[in-house]
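Q: I'm writing up a methods section and want to include an example of the input and output format. Could you take the sequence below and give the corresponding predicted structure tokens, formatted cleanly so I can copy it straight into the document?
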Amino acid sequence: MNSTQVFRTNLIVILVAVTLSGVAWGADDAKESTALTIYSTATPGSIPPEMYQPGMQQATYGVQWRQQIPGYAIVKQERPIKLGQGRSTIRFTDVASEIEPTTVSFASITDPVSTHVLEQNYEFDLVSTDKLMQRYLDRQITVEQAHGEKVETIMGTLLSTAGGLLLKSADGGVQVINGYSNVRFPELPGGLITKPTLVWDIFTEKPGDHRTRVTYETKAMTWWTDYNIVFAEGKDANSGVLDIGAWVSIINQSGATYPEAKLKLIAGDVHRAPQPTPPRMMNRKSAMMEPAMAGADAGFEEKAFFEYHLYTLGRPTTLPDNSTKQIELFPTARKVPCEKVMLYYGLGSRYPAYGSPMTDRNFGIQSNPKVDIYLKFKNEKAIGMGMPLPSGRIRVSKLDPADETLEFIGEDTIDHTPKDEEVLIKMGSAFDVVGERKQTDFAVDTARRTMDETIEIKVRNHKEEKVKVIVKENLYRWTNWQITKKTHEFEKVDSRTIHFPVEIDKDGEVTIRYTVHYTW
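A: Here is the clean output for your methods example:
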């Protein structure tokens, strides 16, 4: 055991022996209950693995990594306490280190009328080796040094801790001590505490046992949803079926553990007043992944709550500090029908609206050869879905029949999606279907304020089966336009977007031409 370990061991013994004044209110009190409501402010899919994988937080974020957790929680705890007549002091030690002190409230459920808080304090000057040493400057301590099997005891007044311990002995001599094995203090100085502590000065006219409730907000907690989907081919190249499972992941780095807590999750965009985020010098153990086994216990129950959705877990769960827990959101929905959509967007990126017509003939004529693939399904009860889907990340796999293993084929994110709405998952780009877009004619008449452009799009299918492709075009040059010639029918999606749905035979090609007339 090195000197630091021995010192900490003795420090713990001292702290355990100290009795704090007032009524101690710890985690071991009987009949305690905890409820948590967790809110997420994360963009779907934006939480990097280093936030919740072991050993990665400090390496990536240093001492400020807790600030990066994009969410917060409302903690509600009920505990029995005994109050005397008149004023009593209550010390609540099991509080999250990331607490927002201004959000704390205390109430007696037993006697809410005559019991109230006179003063409330939040104490966070936690004891540490450095602080304890600083408190004993100019005071006497005992230092032990190990010399083989022999231990030398040195007593003196602590003058400094810089570069070792500087002690002044009783005869006036000064000694610098390095490599000590143990330090003993006569007592724990006042004002130092082992845990962040809430202290209440409470008045009551009803002495005796009270059932009380404490509510506060803490940072460094969040949740998100991971959707795991298995895709299987349907009756043709443009359809398929999905097995859809959803898991909730919860990060707790608030500085407190919540045993057997009632858990609620809020899905929706809850507005909060902007707050500054000053740096914090906090550092703790790395997170541990802790999958939760659903078993036969009750899972999440969803309901509308104000303009949001509330997911309530039907059983208590424990959320340890510095942990990531996973809980099944809903049982896997089997054989959900979906449509495989191929989309060719020759421009590659959508152009914004400009303040004047874009008359440069070379503007936007580049060609993107990639044809994107999407999976689309409707979130409705008739096909085994129908639960409002919280925002989250979707990972899609497909079974390889050669060895019966699942292979990853794409990933996307979704925003909060109500029931009966369509879900569109971008999978990637097709290998055997390619596109080509070019401008074949262009004319502008600035006097008449007109402009005409002809576009030709070719899509080639090298697959062994027929495919359906949607050809997307943006009419980006000006707001007033009219299609004057076309080889295929189109659908107007919005004021600047049209779609040409086409079918392409195996090893076939489709050519689309259209002319657009702009006026201003």
